[in-house]
């Protein structure tokens, strides 16, 4: 037991503050003048629910894609539900634990996930409203997953060491008991607006989406276009495939979807100096940060600037050399123009509302073309000519 506890303590620093550190790194690059120098006028606004805060947890993928599902409910003429993001995350952790053990630890572990995880868990385990499963059973009013994840990882690493010489059926019970202690037990049934549901009946009767209607896409030059290919990022623990389209088609699809009332769940790299959470703006400057002089760096968010022309080869190179990494998931909900007439995507984040645009960012199409790792949407949000190439009904 002493060795197990020591292992847990060693793991905690690495697991506790990953998302917090990411936000701090991004917030370090900010300008007090940015909000005054950017003037955004909405062009398309897809209906969405309020901004949430994932707090100290790497569950952006669950917040962004459940936010997307809430917008889908509105699009379908339903009253949206505040879907329990941590119920979805808990389902992922359970399945991810099975995968981790079966792969003898040679697999991803942690808070992270992908857009498709939400759809997969919805199909397999249903959904719950936030009021029925908050996931807050450890003395805080916000997510704080470091201790729990340290415990879970330490347990799994003991399991894969196989000290008995043969795995017992008890390890998963112990694993689930830890999740119960931190997140709360999952009720078999719960009441919502006077009606009793299970997670599956709630998904079917209240949320009401068809998980088969949703597809995930990306763009890679080293794989055939219009076919499915493995999404080669660490958080793709389930080894799901994405449809591969051309780089410009990514933004063509997003534009078309938004014009038809469909929003988009978006996974991307947010570690570049030209992605600013505090300022609420992301674009691709003509020069890389290290090639700018001090004045250029200081004025990076001092109003609209000319952007670099992004090519498919530049996008692929950034993915291959690790300058594009799979960091964060958000929800694309509209299009706006700045004072020069340039278009940006309106992006809903899940870091609360403490930035210049109350929880939203304005992201250029060049940034989306360059830094997107994957995106998910309803297949009817894809233009018919591209949908035919992908053989989607």
Q: How much of the residues is beta strand, in percent?
A: 15-25%
Molecular shape: globular
Low-confidence stretches: 1-17
Mean pLDDT: 92
How far apart the termini lie comes to 55 Å
Helix vs. strand class: alpha+beta
Helix content: 25-40%
Computed CA radius of gyration, to the nearest angstrom: 21 Å
Query: Count the helices. How many?
Result: 14
Order of helices and strands: HHHEHHHHHEEHEEEHEEEHHEEEHEH
Sketch the major β-sheet: 11 strands, mixed
Task: Explain what this protein looks like in three dimensions.
With 393 residues, the chain is an alpha+beta fold. Helix content is 39%, strand content 15%. It contains 14 helices and 13 strands. It has helices spanning 2-16, 18-27, 34-37, 60-75, 85-102, 115-125, 146-161, 171-183, 199-207, 247-259, 294-298, 312-320, 365-371, 384-389, and strands at residues 41-45, 190-192, 195-197, 214-218, 228-230, 241-244, 264-268, 275-276, 281-282, 328-337, 343-348, 360-364, 372-378. The strands form two sheets. Strands 1, 4, 5, 6, 7, 8, 9, 10, 11, 12 and 13 form an eleven-stranded mixed beta sheet that branches. Strands 2-3 form a two-stranded antiparallel sheet. The chain is globular, with a radius of gyration of 21 Å. 43% of the residues are buried. Mean pLDDT is 92; it is low at 1-17.
């Amino acid at each position: 037991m002493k060795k197990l506890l020591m292992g847990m303590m060693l793991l905690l620093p690495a697991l506790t503050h990953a998302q917090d550190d990411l936000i701090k790194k991004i917030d370090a690059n900010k300008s007090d003048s940015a909000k005054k120098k950017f003037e955004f006028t909405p062009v398309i606004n897809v209906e969405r629910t309020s901004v949430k805060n994932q707090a100290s947890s790497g569950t952006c993928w669950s917040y962004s894609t459940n936010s997307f599902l809430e917008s889908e409910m509105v699009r379908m003429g339903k009253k949206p539900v505040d879907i329990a993001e941590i119920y979805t995350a808990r389902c992922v952790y359970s399945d991810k634990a099975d995968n981790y053990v079966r792969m003898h630890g040679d697999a991803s572990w942690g808070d992270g996930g992908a857009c498709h995880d939400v759809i997969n868990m919805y199909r397999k385990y249903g959904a719950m409203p936030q009021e029925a499963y908050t996931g807050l059973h450890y003395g805080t009013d916000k997510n704080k997953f470091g201790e729990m994840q340290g415990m879970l990882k330490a347990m799994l690493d003991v399991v894969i060491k196989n000290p008995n010489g043969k795995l017992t059926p008890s390890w998963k019970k112990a694993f689930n008991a830890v999740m119960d202690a931190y997140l709360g037990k999952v009720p078999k049934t719960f009441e919502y607006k006077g009606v009793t549901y299970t997670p599956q009946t709630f998904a079917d009767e209240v949320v009401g989406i068809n998980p088969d209607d949703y597809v995930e896409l990306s763009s890679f030059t080293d794989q055939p276009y219009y076919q499915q290919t493995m999404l080669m990022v660490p958080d793709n623990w389930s080894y799901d495939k994405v449809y591969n389209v051309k780089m410009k088609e990514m933004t063509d699809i997003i534009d078309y979807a938004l014009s038809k009332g469909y929003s988009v769940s978006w996974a991307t790299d947010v570690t570049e100096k030209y992605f600013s959470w505090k300022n609420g703006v992301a674009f691709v400057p003509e020069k890389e940060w290290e090639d700018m002089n001090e004045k250029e760096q200081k004025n990076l968010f001092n109003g609209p600037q000319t952007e670099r022309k992004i090519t498919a080869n530049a996008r692929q190179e950034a993915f291959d050399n690790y300058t594009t990494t799979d960091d964060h998931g958000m929800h694309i909900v509209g299009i706006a123009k700045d004072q020069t007439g340039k278009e940006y995507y309106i992006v809903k984040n899940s870091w609360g509302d403490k930035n210049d645009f109350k929880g939203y960012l304005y992201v250029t199409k060049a940034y989306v073309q360059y830094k997107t790792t994957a995106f998910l949407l309803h297949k009817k949000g894809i233009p018919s000519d591209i949908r035919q190439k992908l053989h989607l009904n």
